[in-house]
């Protein structure tokens, strides 16, 4: 059996792929992944998805397609004109690969693949991570045999009936396991893990730089900076670290990127997390019961990150800091959580709905049972 996987949400896709590969019962299953080979930054830099998929020795096909955007500009018009080319390319890919199943994780590249799969009468499955699905997944849902979704309130956006399944969001297994330690930390103070995602966040990095000396008086700080070439944040923060007095310097760990096998250790020692509020982070924090200060991406689609952050704050799991606010407020939120951390942790046991922890198995069972 050949499974073609595509979509913009890579982490749940990897969780499903890794679980199938690890199972001794699935040795006759092969994969092909359709995605974006190069990063949005540069046509010379491989994308994160390309690196992760090829690392698993899975064939990777780069699809060139346009996307619908909310605002018209020269760039968006060029993108819209590429939409027909994407559909023809998808038809070629489907004819060449002839997969038995198509598993989509949303996004603009998944739409032409799903449509081509429908024309070729291939069974299509799609998963939605967020509370409010994007346009692509709403369209793909009409072609799909099964529609998996992560939040109870998401169901209303999809066709009614037995095709919809509340699966939860597949979580990468590595967040629960200490596989590799990038460094050893003596926990003389509470540990804060700060991340702006795999690429980092210049906005978050600037806020942390402003409050870092005060933060380091009370905390050990692990700071995943990313290193967007335009800003060189990692290099800048490493240089700044050298200017700190020795006791503070020894409590600051700026890191450009953590590999998948390292993240379990980082989560295991972190007392508080400061991060964006994307769906992957949202579900990981809930399953690990980590209080957090969430900083929603201001321009996230459908304000999904704002919705996730609001859910966290409303249920007493953490605080929401808006990127445009003063850095001192971020420091106050961190100190507030640290002073009442047991109270925040107890709130994870009182959530209004049960977060499904078997999402990966639920999806695999459905797609293999055709």
TrEMBL record:
It holds the Pfam family Glyco_tran_28_C. SUPFAM superfamilies: UDP-Glycosyltransferase/glycogen phosphorylase. Its main location: membrane. It is found in: Cell membrane. Residues 191-344 form the Glycosyl transferase family 28 C-terminal domain. Its EC number is 2.4.1.227. GO terms for molecular function: undecaprenyldiphospho-muramoylpentapeptide beta-N-acetylglucosaminyltransferase activity. It is a peripheral membrane protein. GO terms for biological process: carbohydrate metabolic process; cell division; cell wall organization; peptidoglycan biosynthetic process; regulation of cell shape. Residues 6-148 form the Glycosyltransferase family 28 N-terminal domain. UDP-N-acetyl-alpha-D-glucosamine binds at residues 6-8, 172, 198, 305. Pathway: Cell wall biogenesis; peptidoglycan biosynthesis. The keyword Aminoacyl-tRNA synthetase does not apply. GO terms for cellular component: plasma membrane. Cell wall formation. Catalyzes the transfer of a GlcNAc subunit on undecaprenyl-pyrophosphoryl-MurNAc-pentapeptide (lipid intermediate I) to form undecaprenyl-pyrophosphoryl-MurNAc-(pentapeptide)GlcNAc (lipid intermediate II). Belongs to the glycosyltransferase 28 family. MurG subfamily. This is UDP-N-acetylglucosamine--N-acetylmuramyl-(pentapeptide) pyrophosphoryl-undecaprenol N-acetylglucosamine transferase. The lineage of its organism: Bacteria, Candidatus Roizmaniibacteriota.
């Amino acid at each position: 059996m050949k499974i073609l996987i595509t979509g913009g949400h890579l982490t749940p896709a990897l969780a499903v792929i890794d679980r199938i590969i690890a199972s001794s019962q699935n040795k006759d299953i092969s994969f092909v992944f359709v995605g974006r080979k190069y990063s949005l930054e540069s046509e010379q830099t491989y994308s994160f998805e390309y690196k992760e998929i090829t690392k698993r020795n899975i064939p990777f096909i780069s699809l060139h397609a346009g996307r619908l955007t909310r605002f018209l500009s020269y760039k968006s018009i060029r993108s819209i004109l590429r939409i027909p080319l994407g559909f023809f390319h998808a038809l070629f890919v489907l004819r060449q690969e002839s997969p038995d199943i198509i598993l989509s994780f949303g996004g603009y590249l998944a739409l032409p693949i799903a449509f081509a799969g429908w024309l070729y009468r291939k069974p299509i499955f799609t998963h939605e991570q967020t509370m409010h699905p994007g346009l692509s997944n709403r369209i793909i849902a009409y072609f799909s045999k099964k529609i998996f979704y992560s939040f109870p309130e998401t169901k209303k956006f999809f066709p009614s009936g037995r095709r919809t399944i509340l699966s939860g969001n597949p979580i990468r297994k590595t967040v629960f396991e200490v596989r590799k330690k990038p460094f050893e930390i003596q926990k003389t103070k509470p540990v804060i893990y700060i991340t702006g995602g795999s690429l980092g966040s210049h906005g978050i990095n600037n806020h942390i730089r402003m409050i870092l000396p005060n933060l380091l008086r009370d905390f050990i700080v692990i700071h995943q900076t990313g290193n967007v070439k335009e800003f060189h944040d990692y290099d800048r923060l490493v240089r700044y670290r050298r200017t700190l007095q020795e006791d503070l310097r020894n409590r600051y760990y700026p890191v450009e990127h953590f590999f998948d096998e390292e993240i379990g250790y980082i989560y295991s020692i972190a007392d508080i997390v400061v991060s964006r509020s994307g769906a992957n982070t949202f579900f990981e924090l809930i399953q690990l019961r980590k209080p957090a200060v969430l900083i929603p991406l201001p321009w996230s689609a459908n304000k999904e990150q704002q919705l996730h952050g609001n859910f966290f704050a409303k249920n007493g799991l953490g605080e929401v800091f808006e990127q445009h606010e003063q850095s001192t407020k971020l420091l106050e939120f961190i100190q507030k959580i640290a002073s009442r951390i047991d109270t925040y942790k107890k709130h994870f046991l009182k959530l209004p709905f049960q977060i499904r922890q078997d999402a990966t198995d639920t999806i695999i069972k459905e797609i293999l049972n055709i």
